[in-house]
């Protein structure tokens, strides 16, 4: 608009009393310069608050890209050390290990999960040696190891049997602790597993090993790419008898209460962005640290759009992770950890 046009508009703007009052307050003043914006920034994202999930596989010098998760690969233990070192140097001080199990090693009992000297323990021992200050976490659940793809043992009635599963989860946790894990992270959603694992760890002399409980893990469609990565999609049925109904949030408070009573050290909500309200609620209820898992599907959607030139992945990830922190997450598991830390370093 040119000046003569503006001049022709009646001066409602400053004569209207409501507008006059509003303009004594100008929130934009605090956004005027980068320095001012920095002063009033309420939430920060630091690499020390990120946990990088990593997929591992057997063999040497092997790296396999995961098609549905651009930028993410499965690594053999030697290459895992390189990846973990790069993460550490970027300030990411925690990784969470997930095992890829070849089909011939899977069975109904998840025997490979509790075989002494398996891939998971080998990886932990090497990492502990090479990166003594890195926080080492392991995912505890049976789905990467069962031929049916469920997180627990299936009984004769074809049900995922809660109580038959607990000893296997606890044994898996104990072996991980012996191999140097700092934290075991049960993601299976069986009832009572935190107490059971705590007891077995303590009996084994691993009082210092913590439990990050997947407290509110939803039966979510966002896990698709992860199941590609581990070839772990369930062969029958779904996970709705153990993972939570996406429609519920009060139920998450019950899970949180129980995990706290059972001795969890850290609480996790998963997925992250579609469940920010659950993070808020749980944070209000517990004094334990609360984390969120920004899952494979949340990562893949952004990468797919970015590959089409529709989104700027770095900026979308940074904004997403900040939102998860703003909702109350103290730490975040995310496949974008390395990318975001590199992006922040560049600026
Ligand atoms: C296994 C497990 C899953 C994820 C983490 N641990 C998959 C599932 O429950 O089917 C999903 C992680 C992701 O999608 O990034 N219990």
TrEMBL record:
SMART domains: ALAD. InterPro entries: ALAD (IPR001731), ALAD_AS (IPR030656), Aldolase_TIM (IPR013785). This is Delta-aminolevulinic acid dehydratase. Keywords: Heme biosynthesis, Lyase, Magnesium, Metal-binding, Porphyrin biosynthesis. The keyword Transmembrane does not apply. It comes from the Bacteria. The active site is at residues 217, 270. It comes from Candidatus Protochlamydia naegleriophila. Homooctamer. Its EC number is 4.2.1.24. NCBIfam families: PRK09283.1.
